[in-house]
Amino acid sequence: TCFVDADQDGFGTTATTTAADGSCDTGQSESTVSTDCNDGAAAVNPGATETPDDGIDQDCNGTDTVTCFVDGDQDGFGSVSTTLASDGSCDTGQSESGISGDCNDASASIFPGATEIVDDGVDQDCNGADTITCFVDADQDGFGVTMTTLAADGSCDAAQSESNLSTDCDDSVAAVNPAAVELCSDGIDNDCNGLTDLLDLVPCGGPVTICSTLGDQPAGQDLDDDIFMIVGIQGEQIDVTLDVETTGEGRANLMITDMVMGQTTLFEVDASQLPNALSVQLPADGTYRIAVVEQSSAQIGSGSIFNGDYCLTVDSDGLAASTFMPSSTVESAMNEQSRPQTGGSPGTRPRDDARRNKLDRRSTNQRQSRSR
């Protein structure tokens, strides 16, 4: 008795036949083995070579051989390397997976879909980046507030309302941030440095008004004077107006003095008409003095009378007006532009030197810009 081997591949089915010659011959469609799982295909038999992933069980082991991805850390996700599973199944326990995409097959805690540990520099979920902490930037100006958000793509993007900076002082207005330019007289701290308008030394130009009273000078000086300072650049137009209370005794002169070129008096106006005013174009870069000087009673003659109270206004087409400040000769002064004085002698401010240095730098920048 032989097993029928219809495809003559040496392996028969369970069906039997009788060999009269006493031999099971392949050429006679006879076999001594009954393990062929497809007796209609000579390429399918227990000794055949498998063709992976074709859906055919060539070697009659009960399943097709399939390609799997090597899952070295057995986390269910393989790398790009492949292996063959002759049992037709990609089994985690056999370090096989039907899914690739593991970006670190040596760590079972790293695979697509894993929970990210924020800001540790490790891409646990294999999306190409570590999840990082960003600051909320609601107005998308590049500067956030102290409230935080998570960026799964590893980047704090302004377009996603994210920033790696937390220094915005108003996250509802894109024009207000530490990189913004301070605007004059809008009452807003545009550049988020804690200072507003003239207090931030912006090039506001003018006008800026300071009011004061001519006080008593030291013994031996018959006439009182108040000296103010401005910093300007060559060619800048300066307009100065002196307005005084017209009751009492005395009268005041108004003059501007160049401290750069030998302390030359550039312009002087007496008080025959009030308000007094002068206009001058600065001849050079530097610091200038503006003086309010009391006239003697012998000079009064006729005209308006000055009782010591006055307001001095400076306007400019550049930075000079924003540098306008009283010197130590001014006994008391009040800036009508709300530039407060804190500490020090009356009429002076502790920040004068730093302020003057900062404005000198801005003057240089403005001059260079004009030359271009």
As for the CATH topology of one domain, it is: Jelly Rolls
Give the number of DSSP strands: 19
Shape: rod-shaped
Uncertain parts? 217-222, 300-305, 335-372
CATH architecture assignment of one domain: Sandwich
Main beta sheet: 5 strands, antiparallel
Average pLDDT, rounded to a whole number, is 80
Distance between the termini: 111 Å
Percent strand = 25-35%
Helical residue percent band: under 10%
- Counted by DSSP, the helix tally is 1
Q: How big is the Rg?
A: 47 Å
Biggest sheet, spatial arrangement of strands: 15-12-17-10-19
What is the CATH first-level class name of one domain?
Mainly Beta
Please identify the structural class as seen in this structure: mainly beta
Order of helices and strands: EEEEEEEEEEEEEEEEEEEH
Structure in words:
It is rod-shaped and about 150 Å long. Among the domains are: 1-50, no CATH class; 208-371, Jelly Rolls. The chain contains one helix and 19 strands. The strands form five sheets. Strands 15-12-17-10-19 form a five-stranded antiparallel β-sheet, with no helix packed on it. With 372 residues, it is mainly beta. It has one helix at residues 352-371, and strands at 2-4, 16-17, 30-31, 66-70, 82-85, 96-97, 132-136, 148-151, 162-163, 208-213, 225-232, 237-244, 251-258, 264-269, 276-281, 286-295, 309-316, 325-326, 333-335.
